[in-house]
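Predict the assembly for these two chains.
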Amino acid sequence: MTDVVVTCAGVAVGYGERPVLADIDLEIHRGEIVTLLGGSGCGKTTLLRAITGLLRPLAGTVTLLGEDIYALSDDDRRALLHRTGMAFQQDALFSAMSIVDNVALPLREVTRLPESVIAEMARIKLALVGLSGLEHRLPASLSGGQRKRAALARASILDPEIIFCDEPSAGLDPVVAAELDDTLRRFRDVLGVTVVVVTHELASIRAIADRAIMFGDGRVLAVGTVAELERSSDEGVYGFFHARAS
Amino acid sequence: MPVAVTHVDRKTRTATVALRGDLVIPTAQATYGQLRGLARRRDVRGVIVDFAGAGRVDSSGVAVVALVQRMMARTGKRLELVGLDEHHRAALELVALAGPTTSEPDDVVVPGFVEGIGASVIAYVHAGRELVALVVDISRQAWQVATRRKALPKGALVEQMARMGSDAVPIVALLGALLGTTLAFQGVVLLHRFGAGQFVADMIGLSMVREFGPMMTAIILTGRTGAAIAAELGTMRVGSEIDALATMGVSPTRFLLLPRLGALTVALPVLSLFAMFVGIAGGMVIAAVVIHVPASVFWDRIVARVTLMDFFHGVGKSVVFAWIIGLTASHLGMRTTADATSVGSATTRTVVVSVFFIILVDAVIATLASLGGT
């Protein structure tokens, strides 16, 4: 399927009056893994916050799953966001809740499913991210990689159509980062989820991205497959891939 | 809702369920109820679920199938899935991935009554030791600062004094004045009946200077400043900021606690003095308006009755109250663990424990002063 699930049209984002990114036009298609790339501070996380309804853009329109997210009422926006999941850079797990309770929380709040079904769904999702057996541990007792995977399980618990991940492999060792990449691919392959990942980790980008969108100088520098971007003649794009790869 | 067409073959005692539509979160509950009902029927030994007419299956559908499969397996029954397309198979692979059993919470040993008391005592002893260690560390760091071997962070003391002291002036003034007027109303009604209305000044003066000024200010600062100190320190603990100081070789006690304790030690007595005068002024206004005691007479009574010793008593108590608030907030804030609820708990406990000890210490001092004739 190639229908568009995220559209940004003329979007400018930033804090205060000053935009970090401006005139952003992009589309993300159903079932693809897209990475948003760029150096630190280029505005990729800010754009992700705008796409997920956390930060109203300074200009332009964000369309999520066919809806202009900032034109919706609060209730409608919340209902729309039930069809998406977000894994934050700092995992954002509730520290006083066990891992399974963290993962089951959206189901308990949003659905009326029986507790046994909720528990089973949480168990399945934790197994999918490789956390079987750690269900009843508190987040503080897990490693950084395990917490990030638990956050992914929580982001996926409502079987969303899109999962957004902000720097999922930041601060992880290469082995754990590769496992997380496998998990993201599995979400796409098994559950058919569209995955949007903000990252600047080259290994992850090469491992998972069907398509990449590169930001820099306050605008979109390039859009294409990773191979296309690596061959780009744009100095900023070329520098990103080759300076770091060397 | 998926239409589940059910047919039970009496010969083989097998029920066939033909799913129609999506098996997703909105329909999972109904499907689960139907399948569970079939699984529990005595005349059914097996269930065949036909997915040929089923649409999308999400993880709630997978969970339903897994639960029913396990439930039937426990009673020796079998669940068979037929008509699966590629998508259904991919989704149901999650069941295999999740494994056969649910892990249980780590074994929790519930302590008995005596063990519970013992655990509480041990916890209090442990907390007491930490408090003593904190007091020793504060004393040592304060000595180093006093002897100029170490310095407080630049501007920290002044900044804390502004936050704790001058920012609290409006609320202390308002509540001090209200307390003074309330006391005056109570005293005026009673004393005027016996023709001793002007002695309301004695009552208000002594009450505000020896008891209510210091006590009221201490309770205001417990809620306003003590809670803030505990929350700040707790949040810093959760965010590893205190660990960061320690790894830099910087004493968290000197860097964080001393400026706050020092500021509190100055701010609380000064605010108490302010509250005493505002309270007396409030009482003076009520006495003048209600029973027409001239302000000069009221003031003469205050000067005649309230001695310098009474002021020392009130201000001295304020210093003790400041240390109670500061030590409690520092101790509980620094003991915060790495979860969000512990910050709230530290803040609440700071207020409760501080108020308790302020009232307790006030009662002890009042008793001792009474016995000592001051």
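The CA atoms of residues 309 and 374 of chain B lie 8 Å apart. Chain B has a mean pLDDT of 88.
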